[in-house]
Structures are given as structure tokens and as C-alpha cells.
Design goal:
globular; 11 strands; 949 residues
Length: 949
């Protein structure tokens, strides 16, 4: 199969890699499927490439006709071929990104944009010293949080082969002989043959256990090794003087960059998550971590062959060695190895105690387990100190320093697992607990569900002050209540077992009132996570209660709710003593977008953040925002680096958590070097956003809001009316959506343990935001990333808002200035531009044909098409250029990539038509091969678009 041919001469290495991978894939297809199938695929490829390059409508018609003639197993072969080619192209592009970064470092003294070196240099130029950066990091929290939200369509088996192909490509870059290149090409051919002969689709739906294992694979391949390297790079940049080879390595940095996870604890809408899945997640995380620790200590034992016959060792090291239990005469003069034998034995005992498994790779002697990670860290520090004092600092830097940093970061838990549940579930559980306990008010039984907000708050605060339990072990509760109490008890047990960092947050979805947060405090008290203040026992700090504001109304109410929350004395006391004066707030991108559209969602989030900063500043509480971002622009996607820098001043301040979901996880983190770069981007952006001179930033932001805020509010209101007018107020829109997108087929993809909809039936309201956005991407409309913006800009230009410039020309100048000067608006337009560049109205029109009702089809599609044209026109007007004209490399790459996505779209449309027709005809059994081919096209289109979920 031939390859994408980027137009830019600077893309020669990438072009070469893609040609190579495409050629090898073609050889595999020829050998496995035969000449006829290969010729069919090649004919479709040539037609699609010619259509994209020349725009000849006849070629488009020919492509459609040839796709329709595919029968038998040919649709599956075609879908697999184009999908796998796009997979291989993604691998090549990721490798090219690494290559470009290395070449930049070699060719230029200037650090790369987004690098740690650039961030530190920029801050030093602004008068921010390394000591100041260290002070920020000592209290900072930066945490990517992996979730299992279902937009990752690749199997783990496929992703594992991707890593091997990437490794072979990297090896091929070095100076090699002709035979070595030929040998590596045979390796690549074998990997690609493995890929072709590996089933692309899952036959069964993922379980939560599967999702846990999938996530853990990224720790093995990336996080465990890469995160300590990021710390090392930053520590070197912050050193006062250049590194001296025999000077002691710097002590590990305070662990500001950690990992989080929702997998196993996020039960909002997922009936498959319960106490057992949380226990499994914590157990499997600890198992993977101790396997890593044991492997690293074993490697250190081989590495530290230092003999006291040649070099001295500290007394503390000798003491540690003597206590290690290694009496072998062969190692009598090797105290480091003897010490590590003892450390290994204690680690093995700790792993046995915490995981119930013997994880040791070698025979060990009985040893006491470590009670806490600090004990392990202290032993490693003894080794490091002795090495540094005896000319062994270069040796410590090889492996020991990285392991020391890993222990600081990962502890005995690996990653923090968040709990999440919907507020309405908490309400039902409390209603049952109060009812079964016979709670009374004014002599009458309390029906918690019927109380008004003030009465609820009063009752919950009273309950928090009670020493006696509300729940009874002798009462049998409903299944829902039993499950909720069980998972909170499991969290308490997990914290006691693996450390408090194992579970730290409980997130309340659909937070709408103050009582939604107080309910979770009461439930924590009932399950041993917290204790009443008047009990004569050691108080438990429990989990931080984190509100999740999702819809537009929720975002508007959020600051008021948080003010009331922080003003409660019992809450303020918890925040001060148990939470280090820090309170987290989560903001939902997906649901706010589905609720109000792209522009209104972004503006509501921005305003909510500014208001929250004021609320928290007035109360001298540190605000930590948790951004619920997804892959698609409609769900907060786009450049994380730009998004962080575009946050309102004061909203980062060293505190940032953000979700990494679906296909974004594999895109960023399946490759160690790519993963390292993305983590570096997060840290660099956080440093820049947190430490840039605040007075100037705040002053600039106040000016932006004064000049641009009214315009944004006007456009937001207009965009929301336009969006909701289409989605929620247009008769027949739900019928149009379910007929003209592959939403039904996506629901059957087995890509996650969570149902696609909260309830059965074709209702937009009940559909989850993730499959909603994913479906629009598949049919190349990506409506969630632009709809309503064109109308908003056009309306502002024509009529203006209160206080706006009087003339249309002046208003246009104002919007152009906003696009240049205001990071928030500039980033919004940039993300929208990428979405519009990936959309294709001609292909979307073909999807519209799937709806038989012609009048309804034409009415709604024409409305969408008109708004699309208006939005593109308005964007061109503001930027004064064509889409992506400022990024010709990306423009060329997308243009060539579309030639391989288009056939998948054409094929998907035809297959959906066939499959649905067979479903409607009771006399015809739908062909399972057709259903499989539909799912293959979904996989390929998702891979081709990259940020579709």
C-alpha cells in the first residue's frame, strides 16, 4: 500500500518513514489477502488520492461507486487496510515529532517552545529565581488523571505492536550499515504482519478489570521511567551551578507531578464499578509498582559492585549492609550489594504484605516489611550519601537517583484513585439512611428527599456533629445504599493499607447545591473516612469533597456554592487542617458543551474560573481547578500547553489536575519519548502560568475583560440560542442525529464498560456527552466544536452589544484585536479552526442521506450547512487568511491524510445503510461481517482524525 506524500521538503524524514511503512503494509496485504484484494485496495486508494488532490467530482462519484460494489469480506479488508495505514502514519508522525525536537536541540541554542528549559529561561528573564520556582513546586500539585471514558477504540494488543514498530523506527535512525537497515526492515515487516494478523476489534465489552490493566500498561511503558526523568531535567535546570561530575546529585524534588486515575472508582453512571473494582484497582497498581521497585533494586545490585578494597564506604552504609542479612563470603567486601540484598528482601516482604503475592525475582531471606515509603526512601538515601561522599556521585546518577525520585512520587500506591458519583445517588442513600434510622424533626419522621435546601443543610450539619452512627450494621439496606457504603469503606481500607495518597478525592457529579457536598461528608463519617469532632480518638481527615460543575447553570452557580461551602466553620476547619488550605473544584467541558455549545461552554468556564478566584482569594484558600477535558475540541481538546497559558490569572498557581481520556491517552503516552514531551509541556505551562509576574497579568486580564468581556457575553448568548435552537428546539432533530451518525453502531463497539446512554431510547438529553461528540466526528461534521460561533460573530458585527464600538468596521477591528491579544479568545479560535479544517460538508451530506425522510433531512442539514459556511466565513474575516494558512505543514498533512480517511467514510455510510436495511427486514439476518466492517471503519476514522473523542 503506497503512502501519504507530504508536500513540504522539510518533511523528508517523515515522508520516508510513511512510504516505508506503507510499502511494507502493502507487501503484507498482498501476501495474506492475495493480488485481487490488494488491487481492489490500491484502486480505491488511487481514486481517493486523485479526488483529494484534484477535486474532480467524477473521481468522488467513482470512489462512491467502487465502495458500493464491495461485497463478502472485501469491506473488512478495505477497512482494515486504510485503518492500519492511518495507525502507521500516526506512529511515524510521533517519531517525527521526537526527531524534530532532537534536531532543534542540536541546531539551535534557543530552547524549544514548551520545553522546561524555555520555561525556566523565560521566568529567569522576568526576575523569577530558581529558589522561587522551588518554593512553588514544594506546594504544587500537577496531576494528569487517566479515565476510562470510552473513545479509545484500539485494543491493547494493537497498541503493544504499535510500540514495537515505533521502537524499530527509532533504531533505524542511527548510523547503520546496509545489512543492519535490511535486518530492521525485516523486523518492521514482521511487526506489521503481526498487526495485520491481530484482531482489530474486541468481541466482548471491556470490563473494569480490562480498563485497569490497559491503564497500567502506560505505567510500565512510560510513566514509571519518564516521570523521574522529568524531575531530573527540572532539578538540573534549577541548580545554582553547572553540574559537577563528582558533586552529590541533588536531593529528590518535592513530588509535585503525580498521576491520578478514575478507573475502578468512577461509578457515575457505571453500574460495573463498586467496592471490588476499587480494591482491584488499588491492588493491581501496587502490584505493578512493586514489580518495578524490585526490578530496579535488582538492577542496582548488579550495578553497585563497588568494593571496599578499592574505595571507602560510610559507616551508615556499612551498618545497613550488616543488617541486610547477606552473609555470603563472595560479597563481604561489597557493602552496597549487601545493603541492597536487605532492601530487596524488605521490599519483597512489603509486596507480599500489601498484595498477597510473592513478587520477588530471586530467593530472599525473611525480613521485616517497610511500614511506609519513607523508610524505603531513607535506606536509598543512605546508599546515595555514601556514594557521594566516596567519589561515587556519577554512579548514583545512573539508576539510584531515578529510583529515589520514583519512591517520592509513587509511594506504595502508584496513582491516586478518585471516587466519583452523582449527587442524586447520594441523595437517595441519605434519604434511606435517615428514614431507616427513624430520624425525626419537630416530632415528625424526616423524608430527606422532600426537604428544602435550608432544611437539608441544617439536618446534614447536625448529623456531622453527632458522635453516634446513622447507619446500622443490623439493618439491611437497598442494593444501591449497600454498594455506596461499601465503596467508601473500601476507600478507608485502601488508605490504611497503601497510604492516604491512594484515595484522596471524592467527586460529586451534578453538584447543584451546597447540600450535595455536605451529603458526602455525612457518608464519609458513616464509613470511617472521617470522625465526628467530639470523639476522643485520633481524627480521620477523610477525602476531599470535590464539586463537579458541568452544565451551564451549574457553572454559573458554582462560585456561590463554593462561597457558602467555605464559609461553614466545620468545612473551613477541614480545609485548613486536613487539606493544607486547599480546595479543589472540577469543571466539566463535555456536558457544558453538550448543554450550551462550543462558545458558551468556553465562556462559561472562563467566567466561572474568574469568579472562583475571587471567592477563594477573599477567604485565603488555595484553589485547585480540575479540568474535565477530553480529546475533541468540543470536550476541551486541543493543545494542553496553550490551554493552560490561556487560563485566567490566578487559576493555576501551581495547582492543576486534568483528565486524560480515551484515545488521547495512547496518543500522548504509548511512546515513552512522546509521553515525556507531553509531561514536560504540562510542567512548563504550569510554571509559566503560575509564576509570570502576577500584577502585570492581572492588570492585562482586567483590561481584556473590560474591553472584550461584553462582546464575549453577547456572542455567547447568541451562540447558545443558535446551538440550543438546533439541538433541543428543532422538531425532528433527535431523529436526524440518530439516523445520520453512527451513534447506534458506536454503542456496540465494546470500547468501554460504561453505557453510552443513561437510559434506553433515542433522547439527546439522556445521551452521554462523550458518544455525542464522537458521533459528530465520525460523520465529519464535528458540530460540537463550532456550531453557533458564526452566527454569534456575525450578529455582533451587525448589531453590536451595549457599549460596543458604533460602526461595523470598528467592531470588526475589535474582534481582530481580541484574536491577536487575548489568549482566551485566540486559543478558542485556534481550536475551532482545527475542527473546521477536519470537517467535510460533502461527506456529511452523504451521511445525511441515511435519513429516509427527505424534507426533515434537507431542512436540518441545510441549517447545519448554512451555519458551517457562516462560521468558516467569519473565522476567515477575523484571521484574514484561509484555514490553517499559518500552518502549511499541518494543512498539507491533513490534506493528504483525508485521502485515506475519505474511503472509510464512504464505506461506513454504505455499510450502515446495508446493515440497518437488513435489521428492518425481519426476513433478512444482518450480516455479521457488515457489522464488523462498520466497527473497523469507526476505528480507522478515529485514528485518522486523532482527537475525535
Amino acid at each position: 500500500m503506497k503512502a501519504i506524500r507530504p508536500q513540504s521538503d522539510t518533511a523528508e524524514p517523515l515522508r520516508h518513514d510513511i512510504r516505508l511503512l506503507g510499502r511494507l503494509l502493502g507487501e503484507v496485504i498482498q501476501a495474506c489477502e492475495g493480488e485481487r484484494v490488494f488491487d481492489t485496495i490500491e484502486t480505491l486508494r488511487r481514486t481517493a488520492v486523485r479526488f483529494r488532490r484534484e477535486g474532480n467530482k467524477a473521481d468522488g462519484k467513482l470512489l462512491e461507486q467502487r465502495v458500493k460494489r464491495l461485497r463478502g469480506n472485501d469491506p473488512n479488508s478495505v477497512a482494515r487496510a486504510f485503518s492500519y495505514f492511518l495507525h502507521l502514519s500516526n506512529i511515524a508522525e510521533d517519531r517525527d515529532q521526537n526527531r524534530a525536537q532532537r534536531e532543534h536541540a542540536l541546531a539551535s541554542e534557543a530552547p524549544a517552545r514548551g520545553s522546561l528549559r524555555e520555561a525556566v529561561s523565560l521566568l529567569e528573564a522576568q526576575g523569577v529565581s530558581p529558589a522561587h520556582i522551588r518554593r512553588l513546586l514544594s506546594e504544587a500539585c500537577l496531576m494528569p488523571v487517566l479515565t476510562a471514558h470510552p473513545t479509545e477504540v484500539q485494543r491493547k494488543s494493537t497498541l503493544d505492536v504499535h510500540r514495537e514498530i515505533s521502537t524499530a523506527l527509532m533504531q533505524r535512525e542511527g548510523p547503520l550499515t546496509g545489512q543492519e537497515i535490511a535486518d530492521l526492515d525485516l523486523v518492521l515487516l514482521g511487526r506489521i504482519a503481526t498487526l495485520w494478523q491481530t484482531r482489530m476489534l474486541r468481541y466482548t465489552r471491556l470490563t473494569v478489570a480490562d480498563e485497569i490493566e490497559n491503564a497500567l500498561s502506560y505505567y510500565r511503558s512510560t510513566f514509571l521511567n519518564v516521570i523521574p526523568r522529568v524531575y531530573s531535567d527540572l532539578s538540573r535546570l534549577l541548580a545554582r551551578d553547572p553540574v559537577k561530575p563528582f558533586a552529590a546529585p541533588p536531593a529528590p524534588l518535592e513530588p509535585f507531578l503525580r498521576m491520578g486515575s478514575w478507573i475502578g472508582g468512577d461509578r457515575d453512571g457505571n453500574p460495573n464499578v463498586d467496592a471490588s473494582t476499587l480494591e482491584l484497582a488499588l491492588l493491581r497498581q501496587a502490584t505493578v509498582l512493586f514489580e518495578y521497585y524490585l526490578q530496579e533494586v535488582h538492577a542496582l545490585g548488579a550495578e553497585l559492585s563497588i568494593t571496599t578494597l578499592l574505595i571507602d564506604a560510610d559507616s551508615d552504609l556499612r551498618t545497613l549492609a550488616d543488617a541486610g542479612g547477606d552473609d555470603s563470603a563472595h560479597r563481604r567486601d561489597e557493602p552496597y550489594r549487601r545493603a541492597l540484598v536487605g532492601i530487596y528482601a524488605r521490599l519483597a516482604a512489603t509486596a507480599q504484605q500489601l498484595t498477597g503475592r510473592d513478587l520477588a525475582r530471586r530467593v530472599t531471606h525473611p525480613a521485616p516489611p517497610y511500614n511506609a515509603p519513607r523508610e524505603l526512601a531513607n535506606d536509598l538515601a543512605v546508599i546515595a550519601s555514601s556514594l557521594s561522599a566516596n567519589h561515587g556521585a556519577p554512579i548514583a546518577r545512573l539508576h539510584l537517583s531515578g529510583l529515589q525520585q520514583a519512591v517520592e512520587v509513587f509511594g506504595f500506591h502508584l496513582a491516586t484513585v478518585d471516587l466519583r458519583q452523582s449527587s442524586d445517588v447520594h441523595e437517595r442513600v441519605l434519604t434511606e439512611l435517615f428514614t431507616r434510622a427513624g430520624t425525626q424533626h419537630d416530632g415528625k419522621p424526616v423524608d430527606y428527599s422532600q426537604l428544602d435546601e435550608d432544611a437539608r443543610v441544617a439536618l446534614l450539619r447536625s448529623e456531622l456533629a453527632q458522635a453516634r452512627p446513622l447507619a446500622s450494621p443490623w439493618i439491611t439496606y437497598s442494593e444501591e445504599t449497600t454498594r455506596e457504603l461499601a465503596i467508601l469503606r473500601a476507600a478507608a481500607a485502601g488508605r490504611a493499607r497503601y497510604g492516604k495518597q491512594a484515595v484522596q478525592q471524592t467527586i460529586v457529579s451534578h453538584t447543584e447545591t451546597l447540600s450535595d457536598l455536605l451529603e458526602v461528608l455525612v457518608l464519609q463519617k458513616e464509613t470511617g473516612l472521617t470522625t465526628a469532632p467530639d470523639q476522643n480518638i485520633e481524627p480521620q481527615d477523610g477525602l476531599m469533597v470535590v464539586p463537579l460543575f458541568e452544565t451551564i447553570p451549574d457553572l454559573e452557580r458554582g462560585p456561590e456554592i463554593m462561597a457558602a461551602w467555605l464559609d461553614l466553620p466545620e468545612v473551613r476547619e477541614r480545609v485548613k487542617h486536613a487539606q493544607n488550605d486547599t480546595q479543589e473544584v472540577m469543571l466539566g467541558y463535555s456536558d457544558s458543551n453538550k448543554d450550551g455549545g462550543f462558545l458558551t461552554s468556553n465562556w462559561s468556564l472562563y467566567q466561572a474560573e474568574r469568579a472562583l478566584v475571587d471567592v477563594f482569594s477573599a477567604r485565603r484558600v488555595r484553589l485547585r481547578l480540575f479540568h474535565g477535558r477530553g480529546g475533541s475540541v468540543g470536550r476541551g481538546g486541543g493543545s494542553s500547553f496553550d490551554a493552560i497559558l490561556a487560563q485566567p490569572p490566578g487559576t493555576v498557581a501551581g495547582q492543576l489536575r486534568l483528565t486524560e481520556q480515551g484515545e488521547v491517552i495512547q496518543s500522548k503516552y504509548k511512546d515513552a519519548e512522546v509521553g515525556r514531551w507531553h509531561l514536560e509541556l504540562l510542567v512548563a505551562a504550569t510554571l509559566e502560568s503560575s509564576l509570570a509576574p502576577r500584577a502585570a497579568a492581572a492588570s492585562a486580564e482586567d483590561a481584556h475583560m473590560a474591553h472584550y468581556g461584553p462582546a464575549m457575553s453577547f456572542m455567547s448568548d447568541t451562540a447558545q440560542r443558535s446551538y440550543r435552537g438546533l439541538v433541543y428546539e428543532t422538531p425532528g432533530f433527535a431523529e436526524y442525529f440518530f439516523a445520520t451518525t453512527p451513534i447506534t453502531e458506536i454503542a456496540g463497539l465494546n470500547i468501554g464498560s460504561r453505557p453510552a446512554s443513561r437510559k434506553q431510547g433515542q433522547h439527546i438529553d439522556e445521551l452521554r456527552a462523550i458518544p455525542w461528540g464522537f458521533s459528530w466526528a465520525q460523520c465529519r461534521l464535528m458540530l460540537t466544536g463550532w456550531y453557533g460561533v458564526g452566527s454569534a460573530i456575525e450578529s455582533y458585527l451587525e448589531t453590536g452589544a451595549t457599549g460596543a464600538p458604533r460602526s461595523r468596521r470598528a467592531r470588526l477591528a475589535q474582534l481582530r484585536e481580541m484574536a491577536r491579544e487575548w489568549p482566551a479568545f485566540r486559543t478558542l479560535l485556534s481550536n475551532m479552526e482545527m475542527v473546521l479544517a477536519k470537517s467535510d460538508l460533502a461527506i456529511a451530506a452523504r451521511y445525511a442521506q441515511l435519513l429516509p425522510a427527505r424534507a426533515l433531512r434537507e431542512r436540518i442539514f441545510n441549517q447545519i450547512s448554512t451555519e458551517h459556511g457562516r462560521t468558516v466565513s467569519m473565522l476567515r474575516l477575523l484571521t484574514q487568511r484561509e484555514l490553517l494558512a499559518d500552518n502549511p505543514a499541518l494543512q498539507a498533512s491533513l490534506r493528504e491524510r483525508f485521502a485515506y480517511i475519505d474511503p472509510l467514510n464512504y464505506l461506513q455510510i454504505d455499510l450502515i445503510r446495508r446493515y440497518r436495511a437488513a435489521q428492518q427486514d425481519g426476513a433478512i439476518e444482518p450480516d455479521k461481517r457488515v457489522r464488523s466492517a462498520i466497527h473497523l471503519t469507526i476505528n480507522g476514522i478515529s485514528a485518522g482524525l486523532r482527537n475525535s473523542g
